[in-house]
Design brief:
binds 5'-deoxyadenosine, 5-stranded mixed barrel, binds iron/sulfur cluster, about 425 residues, 19 strands, globular, 13 helices, OB fold (Dihydrolipoamide Acetyltransferase, E2P), about 35% helix, alpha/beta, Rossmann fold, single chain
Length: about 425
């Protein structure tokens, strides 16, 4: 029996798919090369914006054809869209045999059994069940041998007014320290060098179990063999000085942080209920730079939030100019049903969003071309993650991709590289021995 998983959305969703792969392999399934050869196709969905929603239906249409050739093939849908739409999705998509929540992925074996017996196995839970921690009993199936995601918390207790996540992922639940450390230990045994801690709001880890994220990263760093630590996504409000001090003290923590600002105008930030002002955000950046001088930053921006004026948008551009992010992920505001911003007055016309987005991208391009040039001639530590036709590919501690000519034996090694050609979004370099 073969399985195929198609994943949309964020790194959390990718890590969930890696875990679903682990569950399926423990049941004797093997990965299929393509969905056409699969006996079980799983679609792990996202609903953060409208576009990912639409993609799901076109994929399901394709998968339906597989059933015509192989009537025993099963189609499953899980993840955030499944969670948000529930039975409505099953009605719209009659080819779906299995559907489950973000909360009960561990129940996949039972759901498959039900579907094989000819039932429609749908289980969308409103709340996480008592035994959701069973999920951690399964290993993940990873493509990358050396860098691994580790989910450390689920859900989110912030109530950003544009966001569906608190609805699709539930309340904030920290995974226990023991469970995280035991996964990190087994990953390291498996050859992993870089551990990437994940959560919708990872900096809030521990708040619900009387611990702090700073403690977590100290403990992860103590695991023998962990050579690099990254984490995503931090919320500026939860980023404390204690945390920044820990980041500066722990040698394995990489000099890069993804810290979504979303907007630059204090009025818009308030409407978004982000819990900080532009000035407070910039102070956090300043604090990070003081503790960690070569720190680099990336961010998320929403363009055209309801009522956003030209003046508001100028504040967003101003934040970009002041921080000089190495990477900006920008999105046009997309109204999500059942969120407070959905029904706010003053929705911004699409042409205005498009025009603002164009200006934002243009500005960011000029910033990144300046930032990229600064890498010329510098020596960077690179962890090589993949090898193809004489070229090694890896990332710097500051999260930039570098390719060099070299041998496969350097895969999984931290190597010093001199940057020779810093392009906008990747760089070329040569090995230093
Ligand atoms: N519209 C546009 N972008 C959104 N994001 C979250 N919700 C929305 C929405 N309704 C963006 C935010 C978040 C990223 C993962 O997606 O910038 O940080
Ligand atoms: Fe998409 Fe958000 Fe769900 Fe991730 S948590 S899959 S970004 S809706």
């Amino acid at each position: 029996m073969k399985y195929y998983i198609k994943t949309f959305g964020c790194q959390m969703n990718f890590n969930d798919s890696e875990r679903l792969g682990g569950i399926l392999q423990s049941m004797g399934y093997e990965p299929a090369q393509s969905y056409e050869d699969a006996d079980l196709i799983l679609l792990n969905t996202c609903t953060i914006r409208e576009k990912p929603d639409q993609k799901v239906y076109s994929h399901l249409g394709e998968y339906k054809k597989v059933k015509e050739k192989n009537p025993r093939a099963l189609i499953g849908v899980c993840g955030c869209l499944a969670q948000r739409m529930g039975q409505e999705l099953v009605q719209k998509a009659p080819m779906v045999d299995i559907m489950f929540s973000s909360f009960n992925m561990h129940q996949l074996p039972e759901l498959i059994q039900q579907a094989q017996a000819g039932y429609r196995a749908t289980a969308i839970l409103e709340e996480p069940p008592q035994d959701e921690d069973k999920l951690w009993d399964y290993p993940t199936v990873r493509d990358n041998q050396f860098c691994a995601y580790v989910t450390v918390m689920k859900g989110c207790d912030k109530n950003c007014t544009y966001c569906v996540v608190p609805k699709t992922r539930g309340r904030q639940r920290s995974r226990s320290l023991e469970s995280i450390l035991s996964e990190v230990e087994s990953l390291v045994k498996d050859g992993v060098k870089e551990v990437h801690l994940l959560g919708q709001n990872v900096t809030a880890w521990g708040q619900d179990i009387g611990m702090s994220f700073a403690e977590l990263i100290y403990r992860v760093a103590q695991v023998d063999g962990v050579e690099r630590i990254r984490f995503t996504t931090g919320h500026p409000k939860d980023l404390t000085e204690e945390m920044v001090r820990a980041m500066a003290e722990i040698p394995q923590v990489c000099e890069h942080i993804h810290l979504p600002v979303q907007a630059g105008s204090n009025r818009v930030l308030k409407l978004m209920d982000r819990g900080y002002t532009k000035e407070e955000y910039l102070e956090k950046i300043q604090m990070l730079r003081e503790y960690i001088p070569n720190m680099t930053f990336s961010t998320d921006i929403i363009v055209g939030f309801p009522t956003e004026t030209e003046e508001d948008f100028e504040h967003t551009l101003d934040v970009l100019k002041r921080v000089e992010f190495e990477q900006v992920f920008s999105f046009k505001y997309s109204p999500r049903p059942d969120t407070p911003a959905y029904s706010m007055e003053g929705q911004v016309p699409d042409e205005v969003k498009t025009e603002r987005m164009r200006r934002l991208l243009e500005l960011q391009k000029s910033i990144i071309s300046k930032k990229a040039r600064l890498y010329q001639g510098t020596v960077q530590e690179v962890l090589f993650e993949s090898y193809q036709e004489g070229k090694l590919l890896g990332r710097t501690r500051t999260n930039r991709w570098v390719s060099v000519e070299g041998g496969e034996e350097l895969l999984g090694k931290l190597v010093r590289v001199k940057i020779t050609k810093p392009h906008l979004y990747s760089m070329e370099g040569e090995l230093i021995f």
